[in-house]
Recover the amino acids of this structure.
């Protein structure tokens, strides 16, 4: 009658620990065991229901047989009171038969009730353990997700400072410095070009000065 609890013993035993050690994803393994436990509970509930039904049936038969015992005794008494000893004897013989049946049904009912009570207690224990494992599984699942997240973040952070990344940034820095040097060279060339233009412009300004001087000379003559 305990076969319905076979997977529970596996879950709480060393076999589970061994399987979890070998599992690539312990959370998935725990999910599988939870599904198996839930199936066990459903099977056990059906078995307990049958045991309870059998218990009730035996109780009913015992009560019916016991009533017949009481009835035959009353009938035997009435038969004697009416002077019919043979009928009273037959009633007492039938009473004896029903009394044996009642005793047998009572014994079977008592045993069935004890078995049903034990199975009900085991089932309640199983459900309690299932709920406890479900809470623990949810906690372990959250911890596993947190550990995976930390692992991914640490992997990303470690890749940022590796030699390959530093070399890439060094190359980028060299390119930026080269562009800055080219820009400075371009500025120097532009500045040199503007100086030459200024000198050439200053040459043109001498003609204006000469013309201005001529006008002043003309005014003085007038």
């Amino acid at each position: 009658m305990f076969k319905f609890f076979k997977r529970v013993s596996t879950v709480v035993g060393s076999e589970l620990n061994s399987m979890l050690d070998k599992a690539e994803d312990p959370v998935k393994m725990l999910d599988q065991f939870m599904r198996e436990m839930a199936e066990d509970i459903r099977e056990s509930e059906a078995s307990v229901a049958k045991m309870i039904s059998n218990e009730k049936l035996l109780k009913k038969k015992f009560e019916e047989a016991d009533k017949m015992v009481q009835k035959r005794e009353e009938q035997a008494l009435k038969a004697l009171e009416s002077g019919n000893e043979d009928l009273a004897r037959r009633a007492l013989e039938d009473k004896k038969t029903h009394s044996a049946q009642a005793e047998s049904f009572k014994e079977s009912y008592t045993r069935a009730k004890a078995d049903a009570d034990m199975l009900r207690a085991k089932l309640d224990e199983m459900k309690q353990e299932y709920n406890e494992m479900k809470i623990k599984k949810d906690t372990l699942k959250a911890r596993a997700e947190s550990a995976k997240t930390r692992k991914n973040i640490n992997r990303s952070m470690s890749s940022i400072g590796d030699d390959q990344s530093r070399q890439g940034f060094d190359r980028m820095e060299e390119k930026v410095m080269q562009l800055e040097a080219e820009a400075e060279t371009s500025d120097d060339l532009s500045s040199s070009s503007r100086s030459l233009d200024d000198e050439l412009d200053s040459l043109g300004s001498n003609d204006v000065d000469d013309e201005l001087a001529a006008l002043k000379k003309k005014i003085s003559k007038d």
Q: What stands out?
A: The longest helix spans residues 85-160. Residues 71 and 95 are 8 Å apart (CA to CA). The chain has two domains: 3-160, 172-222. The two ends are 144 Å apart (CA to CA).
